[in-house]
Amino acid sequence: MRVAQVTRFGGPEVLETVEVPDPVAGPGQVVIDVSVADTLFVETQIRMGWGRDFFPDEPPYVPGGAVGGQVLSVGEGVDGSWVGRSVVASTGGGGGYAEQAVVSEEALIPVPEGLGLAEAAGLLHDGVTGLGVFESAEVEPGEWVLVTAAAGGMGILLVQLAHAAGARVAAAARGVRKLDLARELGAEIAVDYTEPGWAERVREATGGAGPDVVFDGAGGESGLAAFEITARVGRFSAHGAPSGGFSPVDPEEARRREITLRGIQHVQFAPGEHKRLAERALSEAAAGRVKPVIGQTFPLDRASDAHAAIESREVIGKTLLLV
User: Fold this and answer.
1) Is pLDDT above 90 for 281?
2) Residue 41 C-beta-side C-alpha neighbours within 13 Å
3) What is the pTM of this model?
4) N or C: which terminus of the chain has fewer CB atoms within 10 Å of its end residue's CB?
């Protein structure tokens, strides 16, 4: 079978399509005939050699933590009725950029009626993390919520979740297309965080108090600017680092202003919780209460182009590989 493999740390060009032996399901496992594989910005960072303390991947390796497709075969102890069913599943960390992937039976989630396979696969990461941080923030109706990186896969979901909860949403993103999308999804105000003074515009919109809740998917200086305007006794979730690092927030300053901080360590869910959140995300999407946005797709052989597009910051929503 073909896989897109990171051959060494470096730019998108280090992703090469190679032939490897077909996988075999072991006890408690299944083989999925992959139709679609999720991609994440963090995978482009890991490919560059970033975050070795969190992500100890060593080349050669196959990225991809979530796939969708049909169950091709099952291993010992697995119910044979899974064969042929349309499912999505987390791979357990890698191996998704491939024509076939081995996953545990416990990871399998049937695709609900009314939801496309691509949309379901696109929710396995962002839906889980988005719902996880959203539930923890306990957003109340009427509160101001700021979402940075608001036109990314997870940001799009957070804008919709906050709007549906009755919150007033401020969205920060880059470029007119992304800001227009955030407004369409429920943002009351949308600001370009590449422009000077964007954070003050958000503060002014909230009446000077600042947002009660910040979901920071941008990290870096943008995330720090968002923290600086967070309301006293607010909640700040720093879960993204596409700018090269997580927001350099001073914990002592957060304590002084009684701001509850949550970071990447708070979105590492146990398997049971991960599956609960994934099933809820798919259910919400199937019911039309949230809408994943797939902005672009690439064939497996162009995984390097997919990474280059993600790194360009021009993509909207999810970027998926079609196998």
Assistant:
1) yes
2) 26
3) 0.88
4) N
